[in-house]
Amino acid sequence: MPILTVRHDSFPIAGTFTISRGSKTTVEVVVAEISGDGHVGRGECVPYARYGESIDSVIEELRGMEKAVTDGLTREALLDAMPAGAARNALDCALWDFEAKATGMPVWQRAGLSTAPEPVVTAYTLSLDTPENMAAKATENATRPLFKLKLTGEGDLERVAAVREAAPNTRLIVDANEGWSVSMVEPFSEKLAALGVEMIEQPLPAADDAMLADVAHPIPLCADESAHAREGFPSLVGKYEMINIKIDKTGGLTEALALKAMAEDAGMDIMVGCMLATSLGMAPAFLVAQGAKVVDLDGPLLLARDRDPGFVFDGSTMMPPSAALWG
């Protein structure tokens, strides 16, 4: 009979990672492991305070599912048993991995994907900083094909201009993490378009989404903090051109794949993103990233130490994960 165990892991970031809501120097994750009959399946999640989650609360949620796992919990039943969020993500991904290990059939086949996953190019995130420091980081990584710049409002145009000058050949997308006011969206997007920015992620607080329907923006807007699972998706249509699908928000790969299909049916472009996490947290999202317009799964590149084995990178190109990592 399968047994669920839960633990808290910590990994150092290479330096400091800063967004509009604050800074951190470590990645704190929760891992769910399902073991039985000589097989172990793993899933990793990142509790996020923005959504009322903590390490302790997620561990408590997962430990509340121990009996259900022993009794044969399925991924389909899990969608009803837990709400979307980090805890369900860890358990859903552990179930996928356990099934793959127990059956010898990789997750991509079990998920019904038509072909094996192929390498993808990920964005490389430049943490929020002064224009000078962001430009210096861009210079260090000028051979990377795509940067995502963390922004906050005041001083953002100067930040992007500095990075553009430092890396004239690199594609740019930006992420305000809810840090702008509605009065900034139109003028900022016009000026950022002139700098070659291709996408603006979550400019306003999620509660202010309705304002976006009437604001001109020459650059596509991408929902992040506003986008979780299928249930809330219809409210995004007409306000955003893209959706950032993160498995920690959808509550796992199962819901993420369903949300991706729903968004594509609605004509919305797909971005696949991540919380700052290890390769174990990126591996399930790698499947969702197949065919996505923008991939942002650079979490392992920003760590001082990753899991072993982890993803293999060739610059910003991620190779498909090994079965020893996940799936």
From TrEMBL:
Question: What residue stretches are annotated with the Mandelate racemase/muconate lactonizing enzyme C-terminal domain?
Answer: 131-222
Amino-acid positions noted as binding Mg(2+) in the UniProt annotation, renumbered to this chain: D175, E201, D224
Q: Which domain of life is it from?
A: Bacteria
Keyword Transferase listed? The answer is no
- Its Enzyme Commission number(s) read 5.1.1.-
**GO molecular function terms here?**
metal ion binding; racemase and epimerase activity, acting on amino acids and derivatives
UniProt cross-references to CDD domains, sorted A to Z: L-Ala-DL-Glu_epimerase
Cofactor, free-text remark: Binds 1 Mg(2+) ion per subunit.
Cofactor requirement: Mg(2+)
Key word Ligase present in the record?
A: no
Transmembrane regions listed in the UniProt entry: none
Q: Which family does it belong to?
A: Belongs to the mandelate racemase/muconate lactonizing enzyme family.
Q: Which NCBIfam families match?
A: racemase_DgcA
Protein's name according to its UniProt entry: Dipeptide epimerase
What is the organism field in this record?
A: Pacificispira spongiicola
